[in-house]
C-alpha cells in the first residue's frame, strides 16, 4: 500500500498552483507573472543575482542540492518551507480529516503540533513523557487508536532536551506502518551526538524528519526549515503550499550560510554552544536555588528552581529573559535557559548568585 493512502482523498485530487516562475525557464523577457520590471526604490543592485522585483523559485534547486548534501538525502526528498512550523501545518492539513483523524504527541513538547491539530479540527492524542522525561515507546507502538494519522516525536525534545534512540524511532515506525506517518522533529540535532533519523527514510516510507536552519545555522529570522521524507509525500505537500513560500533574501542568507566557510564557522559555533551548555549545567547545580538540571542534547537547559516564578522575575528585572515552562504540569518549577555567548551565560549566573547572596 502506498503511503499516500493515508492522505486525505480530497488533497490527493488537488491540482496545485502552476507557478509562473516554473514556466519562465531561461526566458530573457519576463512578462508572465505581473511583476514590476524595476528593482525596488533604494535598491541599486541585485542581491546575489536574485532581484527582489521577481518572484523567487518556489523550491530553489541550488538550495535543495546543498541541503541534500548536508542531510544525506535526495533533493526530491526535501520540502523547504517557512520554518519547520509550516511543514507541520502542511502535514496536518494533508493527512488529517477534520473531525475524523487525530495527531499523537508526547507532552511536554513543542507546542505547534497541538496548535496545528486544533486549527485543522483533528483530535489530539497525548502520550505523556515518562517520569524521567523519556518517550513512552510501548504506548506509542501499541495503544494509539486507528484514528491517528500523524505521530510527532521531538528529538532532542523541546523543552526538556532529551533524545530518542534510533532503535526506538524505528520500532515506532514499524508499528505505525500502513497506519500513520511518524514525524521526527530534529530542530536541535546539531547540538547532539546522536545520529539523525534521516538515514532511515529510505527503509520506512511512513517516516519523515523535520530540520531547520533557525537554531545551529543562526537563521531564525530567515524562516527556513524543511521536511525530509519520501518523494511521494514531498510532491503531495508541494501541491498545497503557497506558490512562492521562500523570500528571496532568505534564500540568499541560506545559500551564504551553506558555503564551505559558512559550514566551518557553524561547526565552530556548535562546539562553543555544547561546551557552554556543559559549563552552565555544572555551575547551575552548585547554586542552592537549583534543584535539578535535566540532561540536554540541545542548545538550552531545562532547570528546576526552588522558586521559579521569583527567579524569573529577578532575572527579568536584571535584563535577562528566560522561558517559564511551568505551564506544563510535569515541568512545574522549571525554567528553560537558552545557551548564549559565554558573556551572556556568565551574566545570567551573576544575577542568580547575587540574588541568592541578597536573600
| Main sheet strand line-up | 1-7-6-5-4-2-3
According to CATH, the fold-level topology of the largest domain is: Aspartate Aminotransferase, domain 2
Poorly predicted spans: none
CATH superfamily membership of the largest domain, which one? Type I PLP-dependent aspartate aminotransferase-like (Major domain)
Spell out the blueprint of helices and strands.
Elements: H1 9-12, H2 20-24, H3 61-71, E1 78-81, H4 83-95, E2 102-105, H5 112-120, E3 123-126, H6 137-142, E4 148-154, H7 166-175, E5 181-185, E6 207-212, E7 225-228, H8 231-240, H9 248-257, H10 260-285, E8 290-293, E9 300-305, H11 308-317, E10 323-324, E11 334-338, H12 342-358
Parallel strand pairs: 2-3, 2-4, 4-5, 5-6
Antiparallel strand pairs: 1-7, 6-7, 8-9, 9-11, 10-11
Helix pairs in contact: 4-5
Q: What can you tell me about this protein's structure?
A:
By secondary structure, the chain is α/β, with parallel strands linked by helices. The chain has two domains: 3-19 and 55-258, 3-Layer(aba) Sandwich (Aspartate Aminotransferase, domain 2), CATH 3.40.640; 262-358, Aspartate Aminotransferase, domain 1, CATH 3.90.1150. It is built from twelve helices and eleven strands. It has helices at residues 9-12, 20-24, 61-71, 83-95, 112-120, 137-142, 166-175, 231-240, 248-257, 260-285, 308-317, 342-358; strands at residues 78-81, 102-105, 123-126, 148-154, 181-185, 207-212, 225-228, 290-293, 300-305, 323-324, 334-338. Strand 4, helix 7 and strand 5 form a beta-alpha-beta unit. The N and C termini lie far apart (65 Å).
Amino acid at each position: 500500500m502506498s503511503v499516500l493512502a493515508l492522505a486525505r482523498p480530497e488533497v490527493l485530487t488537488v491540482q496545485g498552483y502552476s507557478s509562473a516562475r516554473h514556466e519562465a525557464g531561461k526566458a530573457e523577457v519576463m512578462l508572465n507573472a505581473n511583476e514590476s520590471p524595476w528593482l525596488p526604490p533604494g535598491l541599486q543592485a541585485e542581491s546575489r543575482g536574485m532581484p527582489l522585483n521577481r518572484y523567487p523559485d518556489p523550491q530553489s534547486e541550488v538550495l535543495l542540492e546543498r541541503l541534500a548534501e548536508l542531510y544525506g538525502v535526495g533533493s526530491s526528498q526535501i520540502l523547504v518551507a517557512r520554518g519547520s512550523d509550516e511543514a507541520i501545518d502542511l502535514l496536518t492539513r494533508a493527512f488529517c480529516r477534520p473531525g475524523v483523524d487525530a495527531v499523537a504527541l508526547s507532552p511536554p513538547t513543542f507546542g505547534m503540533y497541538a496548535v496545528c491539530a486544533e486549527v485543522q479540527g483533528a483530535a489530539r492524542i497525548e502520550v505523556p513523557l515518562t517520569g524521567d522525561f523519556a518517550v513512552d515507546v510501548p504506548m506509542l507502538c501499541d495503544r494509539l487508536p486507528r484514528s491517528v494519522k500523524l505521530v510527532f516525536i521531538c528529538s532532542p525534545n523541546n523543552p526538556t532536551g532529551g533524545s530518542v534512540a534510533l532503535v526506538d524511532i524505528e520500532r515506532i515506525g514499524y508499528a505505525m506502518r500502513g497506519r500513520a506517518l511518524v514525524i521526527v522533529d530534529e530542530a536541535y540535532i546539531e547540538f547532539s551526538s546522536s545520529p539523525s533519523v534521516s538515514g532511515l527514510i529510505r527503509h520506512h516510507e511512513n517516516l519523515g524528519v523535520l530540520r531547520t536552519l533557525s537554531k545551529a545555522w543562526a537563521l531564525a529570522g530567515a524562516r527556513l526549515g524543511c521536511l525530509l521524507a519520501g518523494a511521494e509525500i514531498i510532491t503531495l505537500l508541494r501541491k498545497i503550499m503557497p506558490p512562492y513560500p521562500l523570500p528571496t533574501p532568505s534564500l540568499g542568507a541560506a545559500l551564504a550560510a551553506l558555503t564551505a566557510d559558512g559550514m566551518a564557522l557553524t561547526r565552530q559555533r556548535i562546539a562553543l554552544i555544547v561546551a557552554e551548555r556543559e559549563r552552565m549545567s555544572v555551575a547551575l547545580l552548585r547554586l542552592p536555588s537549583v534543584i535539578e538540571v535535566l540532561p540536554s542534547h540541545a542548545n538550552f537547559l531545562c532547570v528546576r528552581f526552588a522558586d521559579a516564578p521569583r527567579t524569573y522575575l529577578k532575572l527579568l528585572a536584571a535584563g535577562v529573559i528566560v522561558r517559564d515552562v511551568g505551564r506544563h504540569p510535569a515541568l512545574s518549577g522549571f525554567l528553560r535557559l537558552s545557551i548564549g555567548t559565554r558573556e551572556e551565560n556568565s551574566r545570567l549566573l551573576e544575577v542568580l548568585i547575587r540574588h541568592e547572596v541578597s536573600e
